[in-house]
Amino acid sequence: MRRFAAPLLLALIACSTNEPGEGPSDGGTTPTDSGVAQGPYFHEDVELVLQENCQRCHRPDGIGPFSMLSYQDTQPWAARIAQVVADRSMPPWLAHETDECQPPAPFAADIRLSDAEIALLQAWAQNGAPEGDRGRAPPAKIFPPDNLADATHVLTSSQAAMVMPGQDAFRCFVLDPKLDATTYVSGINFLPDNPKVVHHALLFLDATGASDALVGPDGSYECFGGPGFSDTQVLLAWAPGAQKIDLPPQMALRLAAGSKIILQAHYHPTQDSVEMDHSTVELRTTTIKPDWVMQILLIGNFGQSLGGDGLLPGPHDRAGPEFRIPAGEAAHVEEMRFTLPDRTATGLPIPALKIVSVGTHMHYVGTDMKWSLEHPQPLPGEVPMQCMVQTPRWNFEWQRGYAFDVPIEDAPEFRPGDRLHLRCTYNNTMNNPFVARALREQNKSAPEDVFLGEETLDEMCLAVMTIAYRNPF
Length: 473
Known about the structure:
Blueprint: E1 3-5, H1 42-53, H2 71-74, H3 78-86, H4 115-126, E2 153-156, E3 161-163, E4 169-175, E5 183-191, E6 198-206, E7 220-222, E8 233-238, E9 245-246, E10 251-255, E11 260-267, E12 275-277, E13 280-286, E14 292-300, E15 305-306, E16 309-311, E17 324-325, E18 332-339, E19 353-361, E20 366-374, E21 385-391, E22 402-403, E23 413-414, E24 419-426, H5 433-441, E25 450-451, E26 462-470
Parallel strand pairs: 10-14
Antiparallel strand pairs: 1-14, 2-13, 3-12, 4-7, 4-11, 5-9, 5-10, 5-13, 6-8, 6-11, 14-26, 15-16, 16-18, 17-25, 18-24, 19-22, 19-23, 19-26, 20-21, 20-24
Helix pairs in contact: 1-4, 3-4
């Protein structure tokens, strides 16, 4: 199945969260021989790091499981904080430079802690997490409002979702902004109503009315991995700590008249309580035409060879290239290739595309994904084969895009005739905790062969990119 869909920058700032069943540390302080607690100290040293990297999520109204606004809130969790920053599972940032992947430019809004910041938090925990001098605390950080300024559309489902205890749930809600003309979107935002159960959300565009055949009387339907139809565009990916998107004046997304928005919510329920959710989507639209039109492309998910492109031969194929991850394989690899055509399916010429941000997408069996851009006819100064992004510790629960920290004019270019090379690695064993959990939820005790598809234990291999091109309209 070929996916060539399209829009938006995926932004995320999130911080340390405790795993289920893991509680705070015992706390305490470690005095020196003089009786004075040894630094570093919370107010003088640690608090500023938490303000810049953690407090957006870890505050009373945030989605983190505990607050880090005060010493009293944070100190019991010192050991756990030191652990998750040391293994770099927090803040959650999956794109890493590796021996085989050096992206062409730095990523903007990089939330990874420096080695010095990690060492500081570890030393603070090891020395008993002392408070220090409250008089030397930095000023409290003021966080911007969660709402989108000057929103023109506030959309929510006709009925609240009921989230039952037990299994995770994926549900799509059809939202109609009632656009009677082509519209440009300069801002977009998702506001979770019930942070206890809203794990992440994706916004898709339905410009053809495909959701009409799927939606139920309550305005929603079950879905996983996508909206249930292929002719779509991604508008936004939201995960804990994500910020609203405000595009600069020269950039916008284009929505055709009559377009609807599909909100896919992933609900991670509580163990014993029924929860309700009535989350909201905000848009800011304008009729002013921007210089640059932005879109997101999802490229991959090929289930067969396509004349040199598509799915490539793999190590466990039985009769020609097939997307199949055998049960018990801990490092199975699927590779794909895609050549950018010079025209769209409707015959329109494809211009040179500026790659503004990059990302990867797999499901629970995935462990590592890398994709590269090949220029058969490189321009002066271009690298003929350039790795764009690698997520060597893939985690389905922390999906986001990674924007290159360069002006649009200087962003990497994707031109007709250029090729993408995708490599996805999977662990289909019980040693993969996501596989083990998904099997338990389905009352299964052993892995099964996994194929390309939309369901929980199906898989995907998708290169995600935000592109921009000069507005031809």
